[in-house]
Every structure is written in C-alpha cells, then in structure tokens.
Amino acid sequence: MLHEAMAADDLAFLATLGGEPQEPADVKLKPEAAGRRFEKPAFHFAHVAELLADHAPPVWLIEDMIEAGTLVQVFGASGCGKSFLVMDWAACIAAGRAWHGKATAAGAVFYIAGEGFAGFKRRLRAWEIHTGKSLSAAPLFFSRQPAALMDAGNAQAVIEAVRALQSTHGKPALIVVDTLHRNLGDGDENNASDMALFLQAVDAMRADFGAAVLIVHHSGHAEAGRGRGSSSLRAAMDHEYMLTKQADGRRELTCTKAKEAEPPAAMWFELDHTPLDWPDGKGGFQSSAVLIRAEAGPQREKRLTPAQHAGMESFYRAAAAHGSEAGERFGVHLDDWRAEFYRVSTADNQHAKKVAFHRVRNDLATLGKLTVDSDVYSCRADDPGLVSARLLVASEKRKNDADDF
User: Fold this and answer.
1) Distance CA 33, CA 316 (A)
2) What CATH code is carried by the domain that includes residue 235?
C-alpha cells in the first residue's frame, strides 16, 4: 500500500535494498568505500555584509519545533513512545499535514530505521486510519537496515541512496536516525571521538541536502534527564526534546534546548489503541497505536516514596548551601549533592549509600522533579522546598557568625 504511487524506477531501487523489511543487517560496501574518517571540506570565510544581507525569516518544518536544516535530538527512556512521536512528525511533514495544530512545511522524509522494523507498517497504517489521510503517495521512505554512520563509507552509501530518490521526490526536508545506538556502528556512544565521527556523518547529510537531521536517542542510565553517552552530542544540537512517561500514563514532551529561539511550551500526549483493517491470522485483526493530545497541565502528582522525599530534601539542602541561580533554575553540582546525601543517609555502609543515591537521583529526574545538565542538577528557583532550605541555611549562617563574634 505504501508504494502504490511510486514510479517503477523507485520500486526497482527499493527492491535492491531487500524487498520487504528485514531484520537489521550490516551494510555491505565495496572495499574502496570503507573508512572511518571523513574528508575535510574546503575552508571559507564570509564577509559580514554577506551574512547580514541574508535576513530571511526562519523556515520551520514544524512550527516553533523543528527549523529547516537544523540538528535535532529527541531522547527518553525505553518504552516512553519516542518512535511514535518521531514517526508522527515524519508522516505529517511528508503528507503536508499540520501536527497537532502546528503548521508544517511539506517535504520528503527519509527514515533510517535501526530497530522496530516489524511494527513500522502497523504504526503507519494506524496513522492513516486515525487521520483519514493516505500515505501511499507521500515522499516517506524507510531504510531496510540500520546504517553504521560512524564509518564514512556507510554514511556515503546512505547519501547516495537518498540521491537516487531525490530526483523524483525532491531533496529531503528531514532525515531521521532512529536510534543513535543502532545506527552508530562499532563505536562507543560514551567516547567523544567516536561521537565526533558520527556527528561528521550527520553534518555531511545536512550539508549535502540542506535537510534537518533528527536523532532519536535513549536517556542516560544514571541521569534520566539527559541523553545517554558523551555530552558532545547535546552540545551539537540546535533543538533538543525530552519525552517522559508520567505516572498517570501521559507522555510529556519538553524542549530542553533551543539554540536560536524561545523553547516551545511543554505538550502532553497519550497513546491511543487503534485496531487495524489487517487480519491477524487468528480470526481477528492486527492493532497498533497513535499519539493523541492529552489534557495539558502538570503531572498528576504521584506521592514520593520516603527514600525519594529524603533525596529531595538532601538536594534542597545541598543546593541552598552550595548551589547557584541560572535564570529560572537553581542548581547544584552532583558532587555537592552526593556529599549531603551521604551525610544524612541512614544506610549501613558506603556501598549501600552509593546504590541508594544512584537510585534516588535517577527517580527524581525521571519524575521531572529535577533536571540535569553536565552533572548539575536543578529545580525551579521558586520551588517552595528550595526557598525554605535557603532561608534555613541563611539563618544558620547568621547564627554561626553571631556565635563567632
């Protein structure tokens, strides 16, 4: 169904990629195409007058969310619905459909899929049924296997595959890499050098096509409020979004970085079960889900456990004593918080304290109580718990100063 409106040469090209979606497989390249390093482009300067002469307004692929030609990351824990969100974005851009009330700029979308091949077609059919819009003529393409993008030859193979289709369907507006881990190759996402090679591949795609590139990534094991691995990834982003699954089942989409614009307001979604019109082979029908808007507002509060409450109190105390204010946030370094947590902890030994601290800081970030950036944990500067702790610390300091006098 998805290929009914494609030209014969497009179908022939897709056939060379393996027909129906296959399980992930290594990309086979000619020996001369392999290599981990990317050729350096020529280096140029532009006069300031040339820069100022180009003052056209920004072009948004999705209004206030994704600017054309930028680098974007969406991260979140496994199972939070990242791929449902990104596939919704991709389908709306390819079909020229508004995304939950936000205007889109229609264009071709190329989706480099590293996992979840079996579920893609069901999700796409669910999207069609939910929206009432067919994707059969949309310029939306999915890879048959992951691409080890840390390798320059593999990255070039992806670029050439896109070129083979762009003459008919236009240059890509968006290229999706889902997920970073499955499309990195044999590198280590914690290694800054490996991540630099991956980002060079991504930049090569942006430079070649002028497309936005969107990377789907997992949140950190110990720090749920940031993407996993090297911090150099976040530093390279123009837009970054965190998707979290709330205690009440809703998904909250939060902009955690907007380099050149005001971050959009948070949005809430739910996954809605959608029966398909495809037989399941057992006398029934297959099913999938779609992302629908949910009631806006803060998380329906889930009471903290005693351990989480104690961890929050230790954070407030550490922040009040050692933290600093940055705009609307007030943060403290991980080391200072750890020291305060260990000081008040009732755990029997140092190992138990370490395990308890690891668990509680991850819980508080996952629940949205705290955010983290480069080992600095923060809450709102007007958080009542923080305000009380700062008043208490200031009072204790005045008392100690008076005693010393």
Assistant:
1) 55
2) 3.40.50.300
User: What pLDDT digit, counting tens, does each position of 127-169 carry?
Assistant: 999 999 999 999 999 999 999 999 999 999 999 999 999 989 9
pLDDT tens-digit series, residues 362-404: 889 888 889 998 899 999 998 888 988 898 888 877 776 655 5
Per-residue model confidence (pLDDT) at position 402 = 59
What is the dihedral sign for C-alpha 191, 259, 315, 74? negative
As to burial, measured by CB atoms within 10 angstroms (0-12 exposed, 13-18 middle, 19+ buried), residue 50 is exposed
In sequence order, what DSSP letters do the residues of 375-393 get, joined into one string? TEEEEETT-HHHHHHHHHH
Asked whether the predicted pLDDT for residue 36 surpasses 50, the reply is yes
Separation between Cα atoms, residue 143 and residue 25, nearest integer Å: 11
Side chain identity at 299, as an amino acid letter? Q
| Tally of domains in the chain | 2
What's the CA gap between 110 and 177, in Å, rounded? 9
- Which tokens go with 237? 């982003």
Same domain, 223 and 321: no
On whether both 325 and 389 belong to a single domain, the answer is yes
Residues in Cβ contact with 50 at an 8 Å cutoff, skipping those fewer than 6 apart: none
- φ, ψ for residue 301, nearest 5 deg: -55, 130
Q: Please, are residues 166 and 110 in contact by the beta-carbon 8 Å criterion?
A: no
Other Cβ atoms closer than 10 A to 274: 19
Q: Which of 255, 263, 241, 248 is nearest to 294 (CA)?
A: 248
Query: 60 has which bridge partners?
Result: 67
> What domain range includes position 269?
8-20+58-293
DSSP 8-state assignment for residue 227: B
pLDDT of residue 27: 36
- Position 13 confidence tier, pLDDT thresholds 50, 70, 90: very low
Please state, for a pLDDT cut of 70, what percent of the chain lies above it.
86
Cα–Cα dist 24/236, whole Å: 28
Q: Would 42 be classed as within a structural domain?
A: no
8 Å CB contact between 213 and 72: yes
Reduce the DSSP state of residue 73 to 3 states and report it. strand
pTM score: 0.68
DSSP state letter for 305: P
Q: Which residues of 235-263 are buried (b: 16+ CB within 10 A; e: fewer)?
A: ebbbbbbbbbbbeeebbbbbbbbbeeeee
Give the sign of the dihedral formed by CA 324, CA 330, CA 334, CA 336. Answer: positive
